[in-house]
From TrEMBL:
Molecular functions per Gene Ontology: 3'-5' exonuclease activity; nucleic acid binding; nucleotide binding
Annotated keywords: Exonuclease, Hydrolase, Nuclease
Designated name of the protein: 3'-5' exonuclease
Domain (HRDC) ranges: 223-303
UniProt-listed PANTHER family: RIBONUCLEASE D (PTHR47649)
GO-annotated biological processes: nucleobase-containing compound metabolic process
Record region (Disordered): 297-321
SUPFAM superfamilies (alphabetical): HRDC-like, Ribonuclease H-like
Matching InterPro entries: 3'-5'_exonuclease_dom, Exo_C, HRDC-like_sf, HRDC_dom, HRDC_dom_sf, RNase_D-like, RNaseH-like_sf, RNaseH_sf
Organism: Planobispora longispora
Highest taxon above the source species: Bacteria
PROSITE patterns: HRDC
Matches recorded under Pfam families: DNA_pol_A_exo1, DNA_pol_A_exoN, HRDC
Length: 408
């Protein structure tokens, strides 16, 4: 942990703010320079979450020893496949890689070897793993983080935003080197390598069958007719937002959808009494919003959505004691084991073993519970070998102990 009195503000990139690369000739120069560089490549991407519908990158930052830093405008240079090929043998350093890998893949950039500084921090037990705090605690530099939530689709990008973006990769390789040493010293380096490989191999999650059910505040809607209004408004908003490339919440906030579902307005006047419907983006589509509500109000009963849809996994854990007290005791025993192991190895429980894997294992355990069957089930549920090696035996022992005591 760095002493607060020794922390140095990191205000300017070492070579100054690099020019934004926005044409083929400039990109070719970057490709050559980074191909000739040495060691790991620090990479970051800025999106416009909260402003745009898409998750695309609006700026890509790179840094490598011998090449310096580069800022690439992926709107003007949307194909980074040549850069990808030039760096095929290099380790790519990202912070919270799962957030940036999808938008980098859209540009044709696919790391083959990864070091994720956020994930390394979690495995090492750092309590705060944001990039700024990791750089501060590990390296003793303070980063300016004022533009992390900016609208990066803005053009031209302001100079202070570009400075912030360049600084995000300025010391990322140094952070990687320090964390690599900590992982090696603590015996966790191979664990980290398994985790990094798993992140690279992970596929995009399958879209939910009813994504509208994630509308914030939907619990306030008590009727199936109201749920139909949520479904109609959410679906309309999603299509309009996609077409306009606008974040859905900027088109119409979730709170407006929920209020309309509760109040079921029948006229434009009643609709505009719900304040968010008078916003500039929402007001353009008043007739469409009202038509969607009318469709929901007039649907036959057999076409109304059910209050909830069955999932493919166990019920929420807080219902287990009522639904299956035996499974609830198995879950409590397994959770206690995982929590103790996580504390012993100084990491969050969810990084030692995913909570969903623990729930699924204990809701439907193998017919015969022993080290081998528990290990096999954990592998099926996505646990990595290092996680299986640490948890399978103690979890199996805890579950068999319950059987021996006659508690299950």
């Amino acid at each position: 942990m760095t002493d607060e009195t020794t922390i140095v503000p990191l205000l300017e990139p070492r070579e100054g703010i690099p020019p934004v690369i926005d044409d083929a000739a400039g990109l070719a120069r970057v490709v050559r320079a980074f191909a000739e560089g040495a060691g790991p490549v620090a990479v970051d991407a800025e999106r416009a979450s909260g402003y745009r519908y898409s998750g695309r990158a609006y700026l890509v930052q790179l840094r490598r020893e011998g090449a310096g830093s580069a800022l690439i405008d992926p709107i003007r240079c949307p194909d980074l496949s040549e850069l990808d090929a030039a760096l095929a043998g290099a380790e790519v350093v990202l912070h919270a890689a799962s957030q940036d890998l999808p938008c980098l893949a859209e540009l044709g950039f696919h790391p083959r070897e990864l070091f994720d500084t956020e994930l390394a921090g979690r495995l090492l037990g750092y309590e705060r793993v944001g990039l700024g705090m990791m750089v501060e605690n590990v390296l003793g530099f303070r980063l300016e983080k004022g533009h992390s939530a900016a609208d990066w689709s803005t053009r031209p990008l302001p100079e202070d935003w570009l400075r912030y973006a360049a600084l995000d990769v300025e010391v990322l390789v140094e952070l990687r080197n320090a964390l690599h040493k900590e992982l090696a010293d603590s015996g966790k380096l191979e664990w980290a390598r398994e985790e990094f490989a798993w992140v690279l191999a992970s596929k995009s999650p399958v879209p939910r069958s009813d994504p509208w059910r994630r509308t914030s505040g939907i619990h306030k809607v008590r009727s199936t007719r109201g749920l139909a209004v949520v479904r109609e408004l959410w679906t309309l908003r999603d299509g309009l937002a996609r077409e306009a490339d606008l974040a859905p919440g900027r088109m119409l906030p979730d709170a407006a959808i929920v209020t309309a579902a509760v109040e079921l307005p029948r006229t434009t006047k009643a609709l505009t009494d719900i304040t968010p419907f008078t916003g500039r983006s929402a007001r353009r589509h008043l007739r469409e919003w009202l038509a969607a509500i009318t469709r929901a109000r007039t649907l036959p009963d057999d076409q109304l959505p059910q209050p909830s849809t069955p999932g493919d996994g166990p019920p929420p854990a807080n219902r287990w004691m009522d639904r299956d007290p035996v499974a609830a005791r198995r879950l409590a025993a397994a959770r206690a084991v995982v929590a103790a192991l996580a504390d012993e190895h100084h990491m969050p429980t969810e990084n030692l073993l995913q909570p969903d894997a623990v729930r699924r294992l204990t809701w439907e355990p193998p017919p015969i519970v022993d080290d081998e069957t528990v290990a096999a089930r954990l592998r099926e549920l996505g646990a990595r070998e290092w996680q299986v090696g640490l948890t399978a035996h103690p979890v199996a022992r805890a579950l068999t102990r319950l059987e021996t005591k006659g508690e299950i």
